[in-house]
């Protein structure tokens, strides 16, 4: 409908145009979609006389008014990118083939790098003083790392985000991480084995720590609850013995254990004694376990040889 | 794609805090007591950090860009820049209201109503009482009127409470929309307060508020209170009084604010002070009978009425008595009350009163929030009293300290009041301290970011510099005058030139060069003014003479010659003549530079201007230089050279 009226308008205007084509030519053209007349011969009279360019005087920067003992924390109160007119330091940054590095004015290098001009030591000190009133004292009895680990075995880590945008939500805030020592669970060998199979790569052998990160729920609270659920489930599942677990035989063992193996029976048969009565048996079994678990290398093989000789009372090759 | 970009962006944001807590506290051997978390609001930490900051005197207000080219340096540019930003904001609002369908994306969470396009109501909108309540809550007067109209045409009944709140809204705003709260800058720069002080009837007779009041069958006491307050606020005093009588007859108990509003307009009913006081007492008596408890606004209304009742001792006693009685009632006066006390006690033609000191001892060190519109008048009036009434710098400093305490600066009012305040403060300090202290402690710290001196204040500063001969501050002051666009004010230029002429700088010192620069700067700015400019500043003879003197002292003979040329060429158009000393100095320099032609031009000018001493100039020239025939002829044509 609107288009139609526009078209009608245009037709009317075209008619008028035909009548007054000469005068219309220079009239202000209100229709946006009409072409402008192509002017091949540039008519210089179209442009007015050129105005002389006004020279802009270079202005004094704030740095020139700054006093030496000014309060820098108030000048640069929050993180911001570098501004040469505010920082009263003759900083240079960047690289040129020959000559000194470029100075601070219009220096993109300085603007790119993060600066810590808002966190000078006196500022940190006085901000800490201001924040002290929100802090509670550290519990007196909780004075060493051992106690902390013993009494508070689980560490929960989550983050809050603060930025200028219409929304106060941040998807990253939902992520919850919990961390604890495996030893705090007091599991026996079988349970430990099952627990390690369940947590997989979340267990760090070096420092005996289990780390569980939950981020599948939309809210922090939900993720926290889920992490706690996982911890509980892991613990009880490790304690639980399924009927099929009893069926585990020698081939399923993840480690070679001498006591359970044919080697023990053979040695006992050879000496016709129980293994505990055989002299030097512990050396032999240790060497064999090492050989089986660590794999075959010069060291384990040599060690094994030595142990066999000791066991059978043969003269040692090194002697 | 979209989400990943958002997440990427988020990653760049600052990670604010890391919460690390350990759980599963198991008491084994010893009891470990974990202290309770100290409760805090969502912004308490930010406020605590903010409290460590001070005002940076080199920075402009944070609404401006921190860039040397974009920092406003004069009052006009301050206003222009801020209003430009505001107009951008308005343009954005306009675009949004023109194309509301484009702005339906809801990024914000929790939802911010102001970000969404405004609901538009017309005759066909489906509205309910809830909509009416909403718009009343948001102070949208015209929308409330439209919705009310639709509801009545459709015959939807509105609960009496909503009707009452609608009536209150309309009465408070005189059935007009107010300026949007978002336009802070417009409010700051608008000089509305001065308009508001003019008291005339602005209540629209027969407006919608009245219609609604009539439409209520059996109006309640609250309805009467609302309409009386509205009428009194917009000075429809006769009908307010009439309705008041009506309400009294019906035996209604009005609320305290209705009585307050009637006290405020008492000066419209009764001419004489005694009659007026009797009338006010009457209202107070009926308040007492109705057992309405007076409040802070009652106190302010009373003090305001008292402040309009002249200068007699009796009124001042009454003021103090009122204050004491309200104190007994447990009503602490606010800054607005003290403002009324000040204007009662410190009248222009009245005797001096030291009440400001007493008031300050009462309120010093306290933080205030706004309780009455008149609160914003306190600081400017207090400084006015400190300067013009008492001329007491100690009091002035105490007022200023109170202003800087906590959030008290919010009560400065608007830009106009702020600049009046600083005008008084500057004047007070200037008159009562040494010029060095003034410049170091006040001028350098406040100009131009906190306050830009008006030409009159600048004149006072220059006069002080002139009186004390503190010429070392002149270059700084002149550069400020240039920055503040005051360099075409004749008064300022004359004072600057006088200072430079009367206090010659040591030869070939840095100051001499600066003086020369200032003088030449004055000359070029005046001569390079746009020809089409209205109110052009034109040279006076005296001005040019002074400029020439300063330039000659520095020793730039060529530039002095151009000025001499100007003088002699436009002899008829330039007002006044330079001092004779200037001309004499010029001839001296001509002799020094051995250019008799120019000296003769000067002597010619001196003779034309009617200086009888022109003869002595000619004699001097003749004495020091051997003139040739032509020069001698010319010279003798000008003056009777009878010396040889």
From TrEMBL, chain A:
Name a Pfam family for this protein.
MRP-S28
Per the record, the domain of life is Eukaryota
InterPro entries in UniProt: Ribosomal_mS35_mit, Ribosomal_mS35_mt
Q: Name one GO biological process term.
A: mitochondrial translation
Question: Could you tell me one molecular function GO term of this UniProt entry?
Answer: structural constituent of ribosome
Cellular-component GO terms for this entry: mitochondrial small ribosomal subunit
Domain (Small ribosomal subunit protein mS35 mitochondrial conserved) spans 170-241
The protein here is known as Small ribosomal subunit protein mS35 mitochondrial conserved domain-containing protein
From TrEMBL, chain B:
Q: Decide whether keyword Nucleus is in the record.
A: no
This chain belongs to the protein called Small ribosomal subunit protein mS39
Its family? Answer: Belongs to the mitochondrion-specific ribosomal protein mS39 family.
Q: Does the keyword rRNA-binding apply?
A: yes
Q: Which GO terms describe its cellular component?
A: mitochondrion; ribonucleoprotein complex; ribosome
Q: Where in the cell is it found?
A: Mitochondrion
Please name the PROSITE patterns in this protein's record. PPR
Record's keyword terms, sorted: Mitochondrion, Repeat, Ribonucleoprotein, Ribosomal protein, RNA-binding, rRNA-binding, Transit peptide, Translation regulation
The record's listing under Gene3D superfamilies reads: Tetratricopeptide repeat domain
The PPR repeats extend over: 220-254
* Entry's Gene Ontology BP terms: mitochondrial translation; regulation of translation
One of the entry's Gene Ontology molecular-function terms is:
ribosomal small subunit binding
Q: Which InterPro entries match?
A: PPR_rpt, PTCD3, Rib_mS39_PPR, TPR-like_helical_dom_sf
């Amino acid at each position: 409908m609107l288009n139609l009226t526009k078209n009608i308008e245009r037709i009317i205007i075209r008619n008028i145009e035909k009548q007054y084509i000469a005068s219309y030519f220079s009239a202000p053209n209100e229709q946006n979609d009409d072409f402008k007349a192509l002017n091949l011969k540039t008519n210089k009279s179209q442009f007015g006389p050129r105005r002389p360019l006004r020279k802009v005087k270079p202005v004094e920067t704030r740095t020139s008014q700054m006093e030496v003992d000014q309060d820098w924390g108030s000048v640069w109160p929050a993180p911001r990118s570098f501004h040469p007119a505010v920082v009263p330091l003759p900083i240079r940054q960047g690289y040129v083939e020959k000559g000194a590095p470029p100075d601070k004015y219009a220096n993109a290098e300085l603007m790119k790098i993060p600066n810590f001009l808002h966190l000078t030591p006196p500022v940190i000190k006085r901000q800490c003083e201001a924040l002290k009133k929100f802090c509670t004292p550290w519990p007196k009895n909780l004075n060493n790392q051992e106690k902390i680990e013993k009494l508070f075995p689980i560490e929960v880590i989550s983050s809050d985000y603060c930025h200028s945008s219409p929304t106060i939500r941040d998807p990253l805030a939902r992520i919850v991480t919990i961390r604890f020592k495996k030893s705090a669970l007091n599991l026996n060998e079988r349970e430990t084995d099952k627990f390690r199979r369940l947590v997989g790569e979340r267990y760090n052998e070096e420092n005996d720590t289990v780390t569980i990160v939950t981020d599948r729920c939309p809210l922090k609270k939900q993720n926290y609850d889920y992490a706690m659920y996982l911890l509980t489930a892991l613990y009880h599942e490790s304690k639980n013995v399924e009927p099929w677990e009893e069926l585990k035989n020698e081939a399923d063992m993840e480690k070679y254990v001498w006591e359970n193996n044919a080697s023990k029976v053979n040695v006992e048969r050879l000496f016709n004694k129980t293994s505990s009565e055989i002299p030097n048996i512990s050396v032999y079994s240790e060497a064999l376990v090492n050989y089986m678990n660590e794999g075959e290398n010069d060291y384990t093989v040599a060690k094994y040889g030595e142990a066999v000789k000791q066991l059978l009372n043969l003269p040692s090759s090194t002697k | 794609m979209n989400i990943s970009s958002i997440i990427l962006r988020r990653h760049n944001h600052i990670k604010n805090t890391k919460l690390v807590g350990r759980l599963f506290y198991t008491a084994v051997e010893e009891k470990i007591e974990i202290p309770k978390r100290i409760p805090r609001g969502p912004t308490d930490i930010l406020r605590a950090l903010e409290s460590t900051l001070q005002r940076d005197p080199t920075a402009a207000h944070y609404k401006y860009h921190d860039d040397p080219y974009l920092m406003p340096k004069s009052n006009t540019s301050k206003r222009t820049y801020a209003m430009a930003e505001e107009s951008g904001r308005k343009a954005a609002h306009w675009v949004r209201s023109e194309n509301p369908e484009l702005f339906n994306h809801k990024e914000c969470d929790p939802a911010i109503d102001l970000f969404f396009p405004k609901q538009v109501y017309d005759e066909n909108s489906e509205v309910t009482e809830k909509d009416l309540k909403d718009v009343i809550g948001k102070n949208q007067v015209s929308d409330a009127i439209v919705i009310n109209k639709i509801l009545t045409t459709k015959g939807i009944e509105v609960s009496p409470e909503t009707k009452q709140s609608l009536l209150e809204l309309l009465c408070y705003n005189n059935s007009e929309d107010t300026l949007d709260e978002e336009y802070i800058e417009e409010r700051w720069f608008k000089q509305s307060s001065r308009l508001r002080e003019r008291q005339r009837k602005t209540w629209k007779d027969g407006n919608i508020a009245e219609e609604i009041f009539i439409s209520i069958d059996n109006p309640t006491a609250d309805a009467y209170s609302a309409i009386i307050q509205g009428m009194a606020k917009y000075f429809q005093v006769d009908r307010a009084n009439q309705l008041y009588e009506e309400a009294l007859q019906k035996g209604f108990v009005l609320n305290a604010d209705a009585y307050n509003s009637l006290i405020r307009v008492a000066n419209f009913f009764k001419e004489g002070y005694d009659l007026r006081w009797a009338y006010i007492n009457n209202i107070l008596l009926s308040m007492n009978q109705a057992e309405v408890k007076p409040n802070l606004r009652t106190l302010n209304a009373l003090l305001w009425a008292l402040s309009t009742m002249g200068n007699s001792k009796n009124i001042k006693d009454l003021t103090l008595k009122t204050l004491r009685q309200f104190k007994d009632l447990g009503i602490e006066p606010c800054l607005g009350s003290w403002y009324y006390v000040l204007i009662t006690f410190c009248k222009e033609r009245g005797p001096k009163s030291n009440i400001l000191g007493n008031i300050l001892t009462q309120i010093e060190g306290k933080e205030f929030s706004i309780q009455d519109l008149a609160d914003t008048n306190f600081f400017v009036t207090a400084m006015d009293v400190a300067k013009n009434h008492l001329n007491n710098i100690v009091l002035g400093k105490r007022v200023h300290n109170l202003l800087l305490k906590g959030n008290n600066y919010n009560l400065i009012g608007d830009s106009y009041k702020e600049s009046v305040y600083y005008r008084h403060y500057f004047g007070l300090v200037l008159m009562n301290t040494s010029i060095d202290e003034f410049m170091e402690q006040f001028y350098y710290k406040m100009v131009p970011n906190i306050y830009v001196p008006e030409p009159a204040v600048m004149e006072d500063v220059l006069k002080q510099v002139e009186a004390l001969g503190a010429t070392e501050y002149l270059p700084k002051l002149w550069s400020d005058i240039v920055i503040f666009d005051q360099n075409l004010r004749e008064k300022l230029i004359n004072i600057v030139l006088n200072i430079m002429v009367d206090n010659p700088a040591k030869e070939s010192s840095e100051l001499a060069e600066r003086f020369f620069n200032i003088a030449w700067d004055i000359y070029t700015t005046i001569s390079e003014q746009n020809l089409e400019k209205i109110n052009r500043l034109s040279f006076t003879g005296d001005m040019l003479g002074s400029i020439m003197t300063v330039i000659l002292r520095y020793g730039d003979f060529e530039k002095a010659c151009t000025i001499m040329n100007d003088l002699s060429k436009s002899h008829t158009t330039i007002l006044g003549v330079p001092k004779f000393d200037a001309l004499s100095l010029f001839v001296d320099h001509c002799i020094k530079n051995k250019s008799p032609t120019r000296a003769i031009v000067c002597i010619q000018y001196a003779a034309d201007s009617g200086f009888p001493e022109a003869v002595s100039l000619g004699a001097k020239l003749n004495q020091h230089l051997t003139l040739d025939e032509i020069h001698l002829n010319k010279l003798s044509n000008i003056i009777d050279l009878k010396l040889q």
